[in-house]
Specification:
Strand order of the largest sheet of chain A: 3-2-1-4-5-6
Shape of chain A: globular
Oligomer: heterodimer
Radius of gyration of chain B: 53 Å
Strand content of chain A: 15-25%
Order of helices and strands of chain B: HHHHHHHHHHHH
Strand content of chain B: under 5%
CATH architecture of chain A: 3-Layer(aba) Sandwich
CATH class of chain A: Alpha Beta
Number of helices of chain B: 12
Order of helices and strands of chain A: HEHEEHHEEHHE
Shape of chain B: elongated
Largest sheet of chain A: 6 strands, mixed
Radius of gyration of chain A: 21 Å
Largest interface: A-B, 37 and 33 residues
Helix content of chain B: over 70%
Number of strands of chain B: 0
Structural class of chain A: alpha/beta
Distance between the termini of chain A: 53 Å
Number of strands of chain A: 6
Structural class of chain B: mainly alpha
Chain lengths: ~220, ~475
């Protein structure tokens, strides 16, 4: 009888200790890095980016991380990060952070100016750095762009990059006028990006063009 | 194709080849008959023997388990019945102390009332006697002959008048006496009523006492049967255990439902206290475990409270504490339970606030117009309901100790009976398998002989021929002897 009581007490005590003293495991946290293309060809799509960011703000949980960066002529820079936050573990604080985040991104998108070139690779390298620093278990780079990279003559991006264990999702990949003439250009562009991303060690490559189905961002295909 | 025909002794003639192979095989099998028979018999014994042995051992184990179960069951039953009898005696003691404590007073009162009634009754019985001398005087006067004399007649008339006056006076006196008696009788009534009520009270108390005595008698009868270890007592206790087991499982399931609702109420707000981003496993948040711990703590506090109140007896150490320490423990566990209930009510309120905050955020993110804010009292009903539920559920969960105790005690009997049945079944299966193996070895023996039926027939033929020759050789000798 006493043994039974002891076991029950031990179980309760063990659970209490486990609940009180467990370490903050980041392995279950999500980290999302959103790249918003602000190049001339895509700048007028920036309004839709707010929709995606709002969806992410509504979906991400306390403890998750989110960053929004712009893609311009050279994007491998911390200065291009418009807003970033690791949400507090307390839901009320996290909600307050989300409100501030929404306002920051909103004011950026209202004043966004088009850039001459589009450095998606630089943005991805910057995003990978940010995501690895967060230590999150699930890392995602969301590219809101037409995936048409244009670099100036000085910028060098033709080297292997590392996107190990990072999911890369291209959202709202609009078709260019030339794509309409020859769809193979569009498909080839996407295929080339897929090849590049997968060779960089990314865990997944996905394209989501229907903004009504944003729930696919967090579901593995 | 070549490989397939390689076994053919005569490749050109398959039928002959098959025949040759069959004959060769038959000869080989016939030659190996004795050792093969031995092998089959030995295999049958080797496999069937241990199985039968195992079956016998299992039957012994089952019997031992049954005896142990019986001892435990009867011991448990004796303890429970003993406690019940003890409690009944306590109840009778309280009843006797409470009701019969004032019995001497009651008896004195009854006696006084009876004495008073008797005295009054005696008074009622005192009727004024009729004047006997007058009757004789009247009779004497009545015998006087008037003889027509006026004087005598006048005297008689006066006597009559006097008598009549006295008669009226006596009648009036008599009536007054009766009136007094009626008055006394009327005065009886309250005493009679009081006596009647008192007697009824005594009757009721005696009836209660009798009922309790009957319960004690029944329990004592049961106790005697248990002590005598009768099979009737064993069956009754086993059935009772099954019933207890079923009921306690149902109640525990209901309690589990309550705990689940409780968990849902506090899991979300607990994330505000311990954080929502910490995980213990891939899918188990720390906040959820914390909520579970709170619920388990409430159940534990309830358990300790009921133990301290001596309602349950899972921890003999608590039951054996002295009254002072036990009372302290009651207050401590009750205080902790109330505190936890208060925390739960606060968490339920916080849950509502968190959901409202989340909704507001989602609405602002969706850029949709905010829904009409429900500041009215109707919108506060769910919040109040959640708070009340949060406060009440811990107390409801506290009572889970009672079915838990019942479950633990009855599970011993039920599991014991099931284990015995299982061991019996296992023994039976082993026994059947052992017999099957032995029979299979015999079947194989006969099948083996069937395969070599031709050599066996030849053997039989040879044996019979040899036997006949021996008989033929022996017959002339016998005949010679007979003649001689």
């Amino acid at each position: 009888m006493f043994n039974r009581a002891f076991l029950a007490a031990m179980l309760t005590a063990g659970l209490t200790v486990a609940a009180a003293g467990c370490v903050d495991s980041r392995s279950q946290a999500n980290a999302v890095y959103v790249l918003v293309d602000t190049s001339g060809t895509y700048a007028n799509e920036a309004g839709k980016a707010q929709l995606i960011i709002n969806y992410l703000l509504g979906t991400l949980q306390p403890g998750d991380s989110l960053a929004v960066a712009r893609v311009k002529s050279r994007s491998f820079s911390e200065k291009d990060i418009v807003a970033k936050a690791t949400f507090d573990s307390r839901p009320t604080q996290a909600n307050a952070q989300k409100r501030v985040f929404r306002d920051q991104v909103g004011s950026f998108l209202q004043t966004v100016q088009g850039s001459a070139y589009t450095d998606i690779t630089g943005g991805m390298i910057q995003g990978a750095e940010f995501l690895n620093e967060t230590g999150a278990g699930k890392k995602t780079i969301l590219i809101f762009s037409d995936m048409q990279e244009e670099l100036d003559k000085v910028t060098v991006r033709n080297f292997p990059i590392s996107l190990k264990n990072i999911r890369v999702i291209a959202v709202n990949v609009t078709k260019l006028n030339t794509d309409n003439i020859d769809p193979r250009r569009y498909l080839g562009r996407l295929q080339a990006w897929q090849k590049r991303v997968e060779s960089a060690g990314a865990s997944e490559w996905k394209v989501i063009n229907d903004l009504e189905r944003l729930d696919a961002i967090f579901t593995k295909s | 194709m070549r490989d397939m025909n390689s076994w053919l002794a005569l490749p050109d003639n398959s039928a002959l080849s098959v025949l040759v192979v069959l004959i060769v095989a038959m000869i080989v099998l016939y030659a190996a008959r004795v050792p093969m028979h031995g092998l089959f018999r030995a295999s049958g014994h080797a496999l069937g023997g241990p199985m039968r042995l195992g079956a016998r051992w299992l039957a012994g184990v089952a019997e031992a388990m049954k005896l142990r179960n019986r001892a435990v069951l009867l011991g448990q039953g004796r303890r429970e019945t003993g406690q019940r009898v003890e409690r009944e005696f306590e109840r009778i003691g309280i009843l006797v102390t409470r009701d019969l404590q004032g019995y001497p007073t009651l008896q004195r009162r009854i006696l006084e009332e009876i004495t008073r009634v008797e005295e009054d009754f005696r008074k009622c019985g005192e009727v004024p006697p009729p004047p006997p001398d007058w009757v004789e005087a009247v009779a004497a006067v009545a015998e006087i002959k008037t003889g027509g004399g006026e004087v005598v007649q006048k005297i008689l008339v006066e006597i009559r008048d006097s008598i009549e006056r006295i008669h009226d006076k006596a009648i009036a006196e008599y009536r007054r006496a009766y009136q007094t008696r009626h008055g006394i009788l009327e005065g009886f009534m309250p005493y009679w009523r009081s006596l009647d009520t008192t007697m009824k009270q005594v009757d009721t108390k005696m009836a209660h006492l009798q009922e309790s005595a009957a319960t004690v008698d029944a329990q004592m009868e049961k106790y005697k049967k248990i002590v005598a270890k009768t099979s009737e007592a064993e069956t009754t206790l086993t059935n009772s255990s099954y019933t207890q087991f079923t009921i306690s499982i149902i109640v525990l399931w209901i309690a589990l439902g309550g705990a689940f609702i409780n968990f849902k109420l506090i899991a979300l707000p607990m994330s505000e206290m311990v954080g929502a981003g910490d995980y213990l496993t891939a899918s188990l948040r720390t906040s959820e475990v914390a909520a579970l711990v709170i619920i388990l703590l409430e159940a534990s506090m309830g358990l300790f409270l009921l133990e301290s109140l001596r309602i349950t007896h899972l921890f003999p150490r608590i039951a054996n504490l002295n009254d002072r320490t036990r009372r302290r423990m009651i207050w401590i566990s009750l205080a902790l339970l109330v505190t936890l209930a208060g925390i739960e009510a606060a968490l339920a309120l916080m849950r509502d606030m968190l959901i409202a905050d989340k909704q507001a955020l989602l609405q602002s993110l969706a850029s949709a117009p905010a829904a009409a804010s429900g500041d009215g009292w109707i919108s506060r009903i769910p919040t109040a309901g959640q708070m009340i539920l949060g406060f009440m559920l811990p107390f409801a969960l506290a009572f889970v100790a009672i079915p838990l105790e019942s479950f633990i005690h009855s599970a011993r009997t039920v599991c014991g009976v099931l284990a015995v049945d299982f061991v019996y079944t296992l023994g039976f299966v082993l026994r059947v398998l052992g017999n099957l193996v032995r029979l299979a070895s015999r079947v194989l023996l006969h099948f083996y002989d069937l395969l070599i039926v031709l050599p066996l027939m030849a053997e039989q033929l040879v044996k019979s021929l040899r036997g006949r020759e021996q008989r033929v050789k022996a017959r002339p000798l016998d005949a010679t002897n007979t003649r001689a």
